[in-house]
Amino acid sequence: MSEEREQILKIQDLDISFQTTAGTVHAIRGVNIDLYKGETVAIVGESGSGKSVTMKAVMGILASNATVTNGTVEFSYHHADGSPETVNILEKDKKWIRRHINGKRIAMVFQDPMTSLDPTMTIGKQIMEGMIWHFKTPKKEAWDKAVQLLKEVGIEDAEKRMKNYPHQLSGGMRQRVVIAIALSCNPDLLICDEPTTALDVTIQAKIIELIKRVQKERGISVIYITHDLGVVAKVADYVNVMYAGKIVEKGKINEIFYEPKHPYTWGLLSAMPNLDTDDERLYTIPGSPPNLLNEKPGDAFAPRNKYALEIDEKADPPMFQISDTHYAATWLLDPRAPKAEMPAELKTRIEKMKKEANEHGSRL
Amino acid sequence: MAVDYSAKPLLTVDGLKQYFKVSKSFTVHAVENVSFKIYPGETYGLVGESGSGKSTIGRSIIRLYDPTAGKIQFDGTEISGKLSTHDNHILRTQMQMIFQDPMASLNPRKKIGDIIGEGLDIHHAYMNRAERAEKIQDILAKVGLAPEHASRYPHQFSGGQRQRVGIARALIMNPKLIIADECISALDVSIQAQVVNLMKDIQQETGTAYLFIAHDLSMVKYISDRIGVLHLGHLLETGTTEEIFSNPIHPYTRSLLSAIPAPNPIVEKQRVAESYDYKTSGIDYNQGTDHLVSGSHYVKCTDEEFAKWTKRVI
Ligand SMILES: Nc1ncnc2c1ncn2[C@@H]1O[C@H](COP(=O)(O)OP(=O)(O)O)[C@@H](O)[C@H]1O
Ligand SMILES: Nc1ncnc2c1ncn2[C@@H]1O[C@H](COP(=O)(O)OP(=O)(O)O)[C@@H](O)[C@H]1O
Ligand SMILES: [Mg+2]
Ligand SMILES: [Mg+2]
Q: Does a structural domain hold residue A214?
């Protein structure tokens, strides 16, 4: 356990705004994320909370109406000769990022495989492309590697499939191809942005198992974006809960699921369908996320939060520390705040989860 | 509101086949001999992976297709054959559909109020403008939208709000059956819960029945009285929600249930989902017949398969 963890990504105080005809949208508000080699960090939150924009900043592919008003995105890697390097991606130009980072050291898998695939090119060519461009790999060698990759991501008849076009494959197979392309240049970091949201659950289960397997075999780091806490439970070592452009709770996976502290996390966990109860009604978080166009003072979650305090109307809560690894931005953790407990139903549910976990050989 | 299963079924689908001739030599068997009933005020959940034939069943029922074979009865009227003008009118008003993205097929330049009122306009279901406006306002309130939303345009709405509009559009005709085709699949889990609760409230109030189509079982549990599991056009297993969840028999049903990740990290990280591959399963759906498990729980299989699959519960 005392083994030194090697940091590969450090996002610090990231702040991003978009200029729109309706005004300025303050989409990312002081985000901090740390990622270490071989680990998986999940970012979970409702649509519009800023998950994709944060990752686009990491890839240097923000839309042209975006302005980074503050922060750094430090990415650490090794040159071919083994010497270490750390760069602030926000300071690099698009051309440099394309040459040295994108597809080579950081690869991305999106929700809809068709946005990453070129419909006019065979999948074989698309897998070989990056190797040839980044490493000048000879064609024959690139071909063999591509076939190998297709096998690795579980595609049968790999040689034959090399000559297929994307439309000749099912949705699940296309996503496997996208993953093969992502792995083709041996990246250090794989960013998966809702990679299974558009797929059937049975196929989702297989794609997740695939991502977990290649991560383990290759020792790469993964950032996994999703709105589904079931998926988070399956893949993540660390979790960041995002709301309205801000990380509101972060911690080790077990801290977030068994000892959540933020009322928004309580809401997300309570709203998960539960297959083994006979509850008739689902809990829902009332209301909807705020419009980031008209920023108001105070905690952005306050209008939906039945635990909100008076101070939530005036001041955005800072991150309160709960353990070495667990933090939450809620005034409930201020020593002066009245004592507040998570909803009784959630408490019961978590107790049951812990009991089940203990039956699986854990001590909680 | 408990469903009265001794009542006359609202919808009876009997031996429905829907084939599509794609070319001279190739016909897609999208729906293969499917039978089920929906009772007044009931929610029947139809579940299966994409391509299993769910939408086709919905579309055959609402007569966007002419069924290849089989009988469909709705509210005492046979609707699978040629429709009289009167029957057609009944069908178009008493049965409504909600789609995955109701806005996708709509005119983006039309105001929400007019989109919701479209059904009323087509069927001349009001005496004057005031009555029309009142009906639209009532429905907006019922689905949890504000009166001023009527004058807004589709693009100004979030995914969850759009689905409320889709529900309002269906509801305004006061239908006896609403076919909801993946109407929550594109939404966040937290918003899915809001829409499911809304649909339940509306059912309590209006007594409408739902055919609730979904590709996974997790939310279906909260809305359905009974569930049917569909794969490759075959209805493989059907029963009450309780029967399906507590005692799934068909390996396909079991794989669907097992694929849903549970929000319990320690358990979930150790668990491997049960996988199912029809091609290598040795099962031939065409050989199967309905076998009674218990109560209203049926599974489609051969006698040998039934003996094998039910062994572990006895
Ligand atoms: N190019 C853009 N112009 C204006 N607003 C944008 C742009 N891209 C994203 N946004 C806004 O930023 C917020 C965060 O978006 P995003 O990161 O895509 O959310 P998600 O968590 O669903 O991935 C949203 O409110 C979105 O509308
Ligand atoms: N109009 C059509 N012509 C040809 N094939 C079709 C047509 N509609 C559906 N299909 C085929 O029928 C099968 C079932 O489709 P569908 O009912 O849309 O499935 P689901 O809604 O469960 O995803 C699929 O194989 C699909 O390709
Ligand atoms: Mg996104
Ligand atoms: Mg469909």
A: no
Q: What is the CATH number of the domain that holds A30?
A: 3.40.50.300
Assigned superfamily of B11-309 = P-loop containing nucleotide triphosphate hydrolases (3.40.50.300)
Instruction: Give me the interface pTM, i.e. the ipTM.
Output: 0.89
Cβ of A48 less than 6 Å from ligand 1: yes
Q: Is residue A323 part of a domain?
A: yes
Tell me how far apart the alpha carbons of residues B251 and B281 are, in angstroms, rounded to a whole number: 9
Q: What ranges do the domains of chain B cover?
A: 11-309
Q: Which amino acid is at A161?
A: R
Residues near B301 by beta carbon (within 8 Å), at least 6 away in sequence: B236, B250, B283, B288, B289, B291, B309
Q: What are the tens digits of pLDDT across the range A181-208?
A: 999 999 999 999 999 888 888 889 989 9
* Closest protein CA for atom 11 of ligand 1: A27
Task: Select from A206, A208, A233 the Cβ nearest to the Cβ of B263.
Answer: A233
Q: Name the closest residue on chain A to residue B265, using Cα atoms.
A: A233
| B23 Cβ inside 6 Å of ligand 2 | no
This prediction has a pTM of 0.91
Decide if A151 is inside a domain: no
